[in-house]
């Protein structure tokens, strides 16, 4: 018999797929942290899981009871003695609850080893197989530990003390989806296992019963309009725990990256506060309980686009979507800069179109993920041997910066006028400047604030074949209830000279 331990809905599906595909002829037991489901739904869902027959027994670990008995909460300044005292208390609680000889199991699989059973196994040096907590998350330990810290500081402190979360010497292997590792990451104990591959190629005959357990119903996708699935997140794991901020991030991303699509919202299982039917009238809202990893088996055919701020489940969507737009966690605090990067990409598109040539970009002090996603969605041609453009977010420009053929400065928000450019006497006389001024104008009911951005495209005109990219345009941000206005004009020679004389 094998034993699984888990704490998240991702790990539950992962363990179901692993048990049915890798241990089909062996009995299996299952421990789950009680917080996996809301208290009002636990009994019903537990009975439903037991009735499937996938596991010989299923037990919920009473973490809340253990929390009351383990002693004082820990902090990052807790002493080793204080940490060890809490670990001993946790182990005593587990021993009284366990009533099992762990040596009788042929293998023990542990997901989320920062909870009581994982602490018990780490503290007692019990060999086990570690299970990552999201597709490819083994390669993002720093991010995972930050999420752990946000959810439960005591568990975080203990995990670091015992060297858990994919770093313990007592882990005989680490189950993970290696296809979604961060580039360059390797782990000699990594053992590849993908939910998608298991369901698609190893146990396709079991897919209907798995979908039935999750209450998943088929979704027919028409080819008349491209479909974009937006994957939401659990507010508690985000950097800014504010519902208004979460709504602003969500609406901005949909406005910029899914305005031409039929919108489908996939809420995180614990994302229960935002009313997506109010925010996105007409969008299709999928059930919270439906794991994102099951979407490829629910939709009639692959969708055009998957979009998220920084959901940890997005990694499993690659085989199912034509395009995946996922941001790093910086989007959670830097979402207001989306406007500036959209304008930057739009300006570069105008330049590439005017010159009828791809661009070769060099980036410095900009949010690369935001910029590259806009370049992709706007179909800006990028090639290594294209027209060289230096893009920077640093206004403290040096004389050498102006020697580059084309320079794009992505400025901060502000109210600068044409005669208050962030350039001094460094600007050579043979350079022309395109000054792009963008304004965000919120409408009634919008959560956005009125703000403006300035971008400067410095060009050696003799290097160009076409006209300078001058334009005036507006973009309606429907769900954010705002309008983005952009005006790009030539900074005249007279204005340059008056500025230089200051």
TrEMBL record:
Top-level taxon in the UniProt lineage: Bacteria
Protein name per Swiss-Prot or TrEMBL: Uncharacterized protein
Organism of this sequence: Candidatus Scatavimonas merdigallinarum
């Amino acid at each position: 018999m094998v034993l699984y331990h888990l704490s998240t809905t991702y790990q539950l599906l992962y363990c179901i797929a692993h048990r049915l595909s890798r241990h089909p002829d062996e009995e299996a037991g299952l421990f789950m942290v009680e917080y996996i489901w809301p208290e009002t739904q636990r009994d019903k869902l537990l009975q439903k899981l037991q009735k499937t027959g996938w596991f010989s027994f299923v037990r919920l670990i009473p973490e809340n009871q253990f929390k009351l008995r383990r002693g004082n909460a820990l902090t990052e300044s807790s002493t080793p003695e204080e940490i060890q005292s809490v670990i001993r208390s946790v182990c005593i609680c587990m021993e009284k609850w366990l009533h099992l000889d762990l040596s009788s199991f042929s293998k023990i699989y542990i997901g989320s080893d920062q909870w009581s059973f994982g602490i018990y196994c780490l503290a007692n040096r019990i060999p086990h197989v570690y299970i990552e907590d999201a597709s490819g998350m083994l390669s993002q330990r720093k991010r995972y530990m930050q999420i752990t810290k946000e959810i439960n500081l005591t568990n975080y402190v203990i995990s670091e003390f015992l060297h858990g979360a994919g770093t313990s010497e007592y882990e005989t292997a680490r189950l993970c989806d290696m296809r979604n590792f961060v580039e360059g990451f390797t782990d000699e104990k990594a053992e590849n296992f993908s939910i998608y591959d298991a369901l698609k190629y190893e146990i396709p005959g079991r897919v209907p019963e798995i979908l039935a357990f999750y209450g998943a119903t088929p979704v027919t996708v028409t080819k008349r309009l491209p479909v974009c699935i937006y994957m939401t997140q659990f507010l508690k794991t985000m950097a800014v725990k504010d519902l208004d901020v979460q709504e602003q991030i969500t609406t901005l991303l949909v406005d910029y990256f899914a305005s031409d699509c039929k919108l489908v919202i996939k809420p995180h299982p614990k994302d229960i506060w935002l009313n997506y039917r109010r925010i996105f009238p007409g969008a299709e809202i999928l059930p919270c309980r439906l794991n994102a990893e099951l979407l490829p088996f629910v939709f009639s055919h692959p969708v055009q686009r998957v979009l998220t701020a920084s959901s940890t489940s997005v990694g499993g969507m690659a085989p199912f979507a034509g395009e995946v737009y996922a941001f790093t966690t910086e989007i959670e605090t830097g979402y207001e800069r989306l406007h500036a990067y959209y304008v930057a990409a739009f300006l570069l598109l105008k330049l590439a179109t005017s010159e009828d040539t791809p661009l070769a970009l060099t980036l410095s002090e900009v949010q690369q993920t935001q910029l590259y996603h806009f370049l992709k969605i706007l179909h800006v041609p990028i090639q290594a041997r294209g027209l060289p453009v230096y893009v920077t977010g640093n206004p403290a420009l040096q004389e050498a910066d102006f020697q580059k053929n084309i320079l794009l400065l992505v400025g901060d928000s502000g109210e600068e006028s044409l005669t208050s450019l962030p350039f001094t006497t460094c600007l050579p006389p043979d350079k022309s400047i395109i000054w792009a001024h963008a304004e965000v104008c919120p409408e009634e009911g919008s959560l956005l604030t009125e703000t403006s951005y300035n971008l400067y495209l410095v060009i050696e005109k003799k290097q160009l074949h076409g006209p300078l990219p001058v334009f005036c345009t507006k973009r309606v941000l429907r769900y954010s209830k705002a309008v983005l206005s952009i005006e790009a004009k030539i900074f005249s020679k007279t204005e340059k000279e008056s500025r230089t004389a200051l």
